[in-house]
Write a structure and sequence with these properties.
The chain contains 22 helices and no strands. Helix 3 packs across helix 7 and helix 10 packs parallel to helix 22. The two termini are 46 Å apart.
């Protein structure tokens, strides 16, 4: 009966292939995740076997995504577990305690710097002394920014005495390895995750319904919206902006904003849903970001786990350090934090400019706050719905402008797009654009309209899924998977935040 089975191909499924990573949106992942759920439920009353199963699957998942670099993930768990243990064992205020803490910071940030920023540093050196060093052939391990920040928060919280170290290396390893958020977050905190490891991880009917809703929503966002808009419009314009009119370039900028949000939030939705099926609640990463009324408000709504991490561990310490400078100290702390946000996303002048631009937005807002308030009070706009809409529209366009430098491969491409928009707009091609890109435009408008609806609408829809009988949930999930397959490109489209 096994004569027709090609075991070599079967074996290849378990071997790392850089061209075929294990993604949430693949059929291979669905197969193995269902297998995991079966074993996980079988071990429901044996906590040790349940945790061991999650550890093995999480390591396999990361190996399939990053290959041999899963060793770095394991090393991160070892270093930070024992760093936390040693720091907690030493009396506060002792030099030895500070040295262990600084060594842990050095190992974490040094590893991140080597893989992510070495060639950028070489580029800077070469710009000063032409051709001094050749770039190194360095592979950036997927997710290293995310799990390094997770590990760092654990060590920092122990050093600040806001969290007690966990006594189980196994439990801590699960915090670092946990496959739903190891690649693209959310960057969960140990104080939120570790207590759940020793919980019963029971799944209620409401949890099951919510989890399936999140997984279906994430699949639709990723495959039906983000990938389709990217492949059929956005990527083409960014590759050759001078071949398109200014109007088409502007639509590509709007399209990229929607693509980025649907891609990243789609992953987060699936991560939260998958974690919930395993009995874990991860922190949410998005809160209707296109409803933001300012750039500062946007970062309270977008990539919340990263922005809150930098708020707690970068901005607040800097704010205290610069407190004597008053408002100028706050501005300086904010600018440094936003530069860190830019560089966290990648080592390039484009990301550095992206972060600096966001910092500039927020600093200008701080210094003009009183002037704006007096003006809005004088014209009677304070607290009105009209003012809120105007603020949302302005904020969205400031974001779109900044994302131009986030997406464009270089400044030349970015300025070419701006040149087309301001010098070669050609509004007369709008009817032709609508006819040629009807589906693309429809998806973009649909996302913005749905995003502008009251937040209660989403929770009502989620409630409908929760209350649907199990057979109905299964049919609905199968239908969404079928839609995703129909919309999917033949070429695998990795999630955008894999490269960060």
């Amino acid at each position: 009966m096994f004569n027709n089975i090609d075991f070599s191909k079967l074996f290849q499924l378990f071997v790392f292939d850089p061209h075929d990573p294990l993604l949430f949106s693949t059929s291979f992942f669905l197969f193995f995740f269902f297998a995991l759920l079966i074993f996980y439920r079988l071990f429901a009353f044996n906590k040790n076997l349940r945790i061991f199963t999650l550890l093995i699957f999480s390591l396999f998942f990361y190996y399939k995504a990053a290959g041999e670099y899963f060793v770095i993930l394991i090393a991160s768990a070892i270093v930070n577990y024992y760093a936390g243990k040693f720091i907690a064992a030493i009396e506060p205020g002792k030099l030895k305690r500070r040295l262990v803490f600084y060594l842990a910071l050095l190992l974490n940030l040094g590893t991140l710097f080597y893989f992510k920023y070495t060639n950028f540093f070489i580029e800077i050196v070469n710009s000063i002394h032409t051709g001094t060093f050749s770039p190194l052939d360095i592979f950036l391990p997927i997710g290293i920014s995310f799990y390094t920040f997770k590990a760092l928060s654990y060590v920092i919280d122990i050093y600040l005495e806001t969290f007690e170290p966990v006594h189980s290396f196994r439990d801590f390893s699960l915090f670092i390895f946990f496959f739903p958020n190891v690649l693209i977050g959310p960057i969960d905190r140990a104080s939120n995750f570790l207590p759940q490891v020793q919980g019963d991880q029971s799944i209620t009917k409401e949890d099951l319904g919510k989890a399936l809703f999140l997984i279906m929503l994430g699949l639709l966002k990723k495959t039906v919206v983000a990938d389709y808009i990217s492949l059929n419009f956005v990527d083409r314009v960014f590759e050759s902006p001078l071949r398109f009119t200014g109007f088409e370039n502007l639509m590509a900028l709007y399209g990229y904003a929607i693509q980025l949000y649907c891609d990243f939030s789609g992953y987060t939705d699936m991560a939260l849903g998958i974690a919930l099926l395993l009995g874990f609640n991860l922190m949410d990463n998005f809160n209707w970001p296109f409803k933001a009324t300012s750039i500062a408000d946007f970062w309270r709504r977008f990539h919340i786990s990263m922005s809150s991490w930098l708020l707690d561990y970068t901005f607040k310490p800097l704010q205290i350090k610069f407190r004597n400078l008053k408002i100028y100290g706050n501005a300086l702390a904010l600018m440094i934090t936003f530069i860190a946000i830019g560089l966290w996303h990648g080592a390039s002048w484009m990301f550095l400019f992206f972060g600096t631009l966001h910092g500039f937005y927020v600093v200008v807002s701080i210094f003009t706050k009183k002037i704006k308030k007096k003006f809005f009070d004088a014209v009677g706009l304070t607290g009105t719905r009209f003012l809120r809409i105007v603020q949302i529209v302005i904020t969205f366009h400031l974001l779109v402008f900044a994302w131009l430098f986030f997406r464009a491969p270089d400044f030349t491409t970015a300025f070419n797009m701006l040149g087309q928009i301001f010098n070669f707009f050609h509004a007369d091609i709008i009817p032709q654009f609508v006819k040629g890109y009807t589906y693309i435009l429809g998806l973009m408008i649909l996302v913005l309209v749905l995003h502008s609806l009251p937040e209660s609408w989403r929770y009502k829809l989620e409630s409908v899924v929760v209350k649907t009988p199990m057979i109905g949930k299964a049919v609905l999930l199968a239908f969404v998977i079928w839609i995703a397959i129909q919309a999917k490109s033949a070429d695998l489209q990795p999630f955008l935040y894999f490269k960060f």
